[in-house]
Amino acid sequence: MKKTLQFRELLNSDNLEFLCEAHNGISAIIAQEAGFRGIWGSGLSLSAQFGVRDNNEASWTQVLEMLEFMSDATRIPILLDGDTGYGNFNNMRRLVNKLEQREVAAVCIEDKLFPKTNSFIGGQAQPLADIDEFCGKIKAGKDAQRDDDFAIVARIEAFIAGWGLSEALRRAEAYHAAGADAILIHSALSTPDEILAFKQEWGARAPVVIVPTKYYATPTELFRDHGFSLIIWANHLMRASIAAMQATARTLADEQNLLSVEDRVVPVTEVFRLQGATELQQAEKKYLPQRSRGTQALVLAASRGKELGPLTEQRPKTMVNIGGKPLLSSIVEALNATGIKRISVVRGYRKEAVDLPNLKLIDNDEFADSGELLSLLKGLRGVDPEQDLIVCYGDVLFNKYIAQMLAESEAPLAVAIDTNWMESANRHRSADYVRCSAPHSRESFTTPVNLLEIAADLPGNQIHGEWMGFLKIDADTIPEILQASERMLREPGQRQAKIPELLNRLIERGQAVRGLYTTGHWLDIDTLDDVVQAGNF
Ligand code: SPV
Ligand code: MG
């Protein structure tokens, strides 16, 4: 329902209704969340949050600007405390139009002179507006409004200025006749005597609004019984926040640490919630190009690398020193060089030795009696589900362009394939050979090639290349690979399963695995001989 109509319903309902003061976007959200059906845009609170006096020191456009934030942030109607209308009838009609443009439902103007002073500062000495001049202002506002449901509340300051009941009634009658939709009768007494006397005489000629700031001890039931329409809790969110800010600032100044205030302030997540941060995250997923999510890496480095003998007694293979630094350092550098900053490492054997900075460490404490698929599974559970992922091994050195090629691939799932597979075959080392939908050729640069099978014992005439141990998984595909790994590891006899077995499974189930051909520029550290060779890599 449009805000003007909501406000009109509050004014005209048979029940006593309530407005809560707010003075900026977040206090408006808080008032709405507490269940209030309307907001009082208090002049006192708005000026206070700007750090100025309630004397029209903030310009009306500055007030309007804050009001726009409050209105944008909420669905409930706002009644602006428009002071005296910020000028004469002409300023008033411009104000009404500007408020309507910002979906502010109503404005209240008081019969004092510009620049006004808050009613609780020497109210008795404050001059009142000429009745006819004020009526002209009300009329001009009503004539200016484009939405018939926009409301103008006329506020009577006769009691504040020390005039009696008859002056208050005379004014109310005139303002009502000029078109005011409701009367706000204000009083600075600590008892409700004035406003009750007014209501008694006024009856139900037009809805009556009150602000019980000074007669706060009066039971609300009394107002209900007397048929008031609307109560304004006029400044209490502002005053509550001042108390909280003063206490927090004093404590911080005295104690010079955050510990003593942390439990007394809301967590930052509460701030994000009030700001609606989740909505933006969802919108980003919907509207931003997928690539911008970035790429992360997962290094599988849980095994010892027994073949390296004494070199891996105190540390896993990934931490063996090659060319003056741990193997893992070179891997991290190659990843960093392609712009991949987020790197997770699955560690197991001598895990405390894997201690390089800026890595997310994921433990596989079952490394000794399990295969690399379990490490992959634990790794997938620990990575950021929002980013694309490159999986690599902690004992494979590579040129950065290989990671770049994988990161740039559009495929949901891809592997890097070395066409130079004969080299491994000639050296009689174990390797994972692949058969693809097409061999490496000029066409394979432009036509996507899919993996058909991966095995250590493929017949030579079927081999198109060697899997280099790299896997690229699109963020959206991570859950699928995670579930497939879980399923496989639950089957009996699969505890030692390796990634190629998972890939064959996925292919059998119809998952496309893109093969990206490349030639050389990587080194698998399996033997002491490899360690020596790697020095020149
Ligand atoms: C305000 O909240 O700014 C008001 C109410 O005008 S009072 O401060 O009581 O005058
Ligand atoms: Mg005010």
Provide structural commentary.
The protein is built from 20 helices and 21 strands. It is α/β, with parallel strands linked by helices and 537 residues long. The protein has 2 domains: 242 residues, TIM Barrel (Alpha-Beta Barrel), CATH 3.20.20; 244 residues, Spore Coat Polysaccharide Biosynthesis Protein SpsA, Chain A. The strands form 4 sheets. Strands 9, 12, 13, 14, 16, 17, 18, 19 and 20 form a 9-stranded mixed beta sheet that branches. Strands 1-2-3-4-5-6-7-8 form an 8-stranded parallel β-barrel, surrounded by 9 helices. The chain has a two-stranded antiparallel ribbon with strand order 10-11. α5 links the parallel β3 and β4. It binds sulfopyruvate (SPV) and magnesium ion (MG).
SSE diagram, text form:
Elements: H1 3-12, E1 17-22, H2 25-33, E2 39-41, H3 43-50, H4 60-73, E3 78-81, H5 89-101, E4 106-110, H6 131-144, E5 151-156, H7 165-178, E6 182-185, H8 193-202, E7 208-210, H9 220-225, E8 230-233, H10 236-255, H11 259-262, H12 268-275, H13 277-287, E9 295-301, E10 321-322, E11 325-326, H14 327-337, E12 343-347, E13 360-363, H15 372-382, E14 388-393, E15 396-398, H16 400-408, E16 413-418, H17 422-426, E17 433-436, E18 451-455, E19 465-473, H18 478-490, H19 499-508, E20 514-518, E21 522-524, H20 528-534
Helix pairs in contact: 2-4, 5-6, 6-7, 7-8, 15-18
The structure holds sulfopyruvate and magnesium ion.
